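Appendix B. Chain record.
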Amino acid sequence: MPQIVGVADDGPDEQVLIPDERAPGNPEFVERVDSSELELVADEEEVLEDDASDPPESSGFVIPTLARPAETAAEPVVAPEAPEPPEVTEAQAEATEARVEEVEEVEEVEEVEVDAIESLDTADLVEVDQRSLSEEAAPPSPPPDPQPKRRKAWYDDVFGEHYLSLLPPTWEETGARDAAFIHAQLGLDAGASVLDVACGDGRHAIELAKLGLAVTGLDNSLALLLAAAQNKEAEATELEQGSVDFMHGDMRRLPRDRQFDAVLCVGSSFGYFEEDQNRLCLQEMYDRLGVGGRLLLHVFNRDFVVPHLPSRSWWQGKRCMVIDEAEMNFFANRLRIHRTIIFDDGRQYEHYMFMRAYTVQDLGKAMSQIGMRVIEVSGSRDTRGRFYGSASPDIWIVAERK
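Structure tokens predicted for this chain:
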């Protein structure tokens, strides 16, 4: 390692050797030397020339130069040959141009969005922030409650496809006589709208349509509605276009999209539910009427049936035998019927039916409570406008909305 010669502080003629650890570049050594005591040394070639011509002076501070490593001849660097670019097909060139256009479109969209953001007013920003905060603060709305699934009731089994075999052979004639009696009781003009609740196989609705009324039949049994559609098609030549339609529905939730001039429920189809739901059915019928609209109900007369209970009856249907065993629950005023159906092919059905037994006073009171006025009561089709108490088998009651 080279050693640096310096001038001691005691005098200019004494020289001090600095140890190797105080070699040039050591920051401690540089800080202790005054810049006025340093003497610059020229390049090596210039020093050699000066040494040959002028001898060096014995006084002053000398910084020896470090030996430079021998310069080796640098090998020429040969740049690697650039690989030939691969051939570009026309499809690749078109794809590249398409990507370039997409990038340019994205840049244009970003510039437009930036301009739109810069053009927003601070009031708009505050309003958006407040709205977003309110949306975040608002609790999520609970999901809507699914419609409860209705349990299968006794009437779902009773009014199946096999029920059509229980209708009497004179059912078409009976339906026509009932329709004429209903038309006379309601006193409607031609083209008046009528809702037939629990229309069954549509016999009454079709016969009323033949009399010039616009009838809509509603029933909960798909099997009976299919039969109603078939009956309508069979008598299409006697019906005007659109004079009768059928729809599936529950009499506790009647259609609310329109009102009718009259609503009817015949064939002892009223009273299948509990007391509160029966009142709901009556209210639904009332709500479907306009002012002055008429409601007609037909049920069996409780006072006529009770003296004959308990009872057992049988009759023959279409290729089947039917046996009914009936008894009255006097506490609930409900008629309980145990029905057994045996077909000649071996099929057998067993049903239990429960129906509310009404008196004239029960129906009149219920209609008065919902805002209707009773205008006519009949005990049968043959005694219109007359009711003979327990001697009348049926109750045909007509009420008008006030």
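Further analysis of this model is presented in Appendix C.
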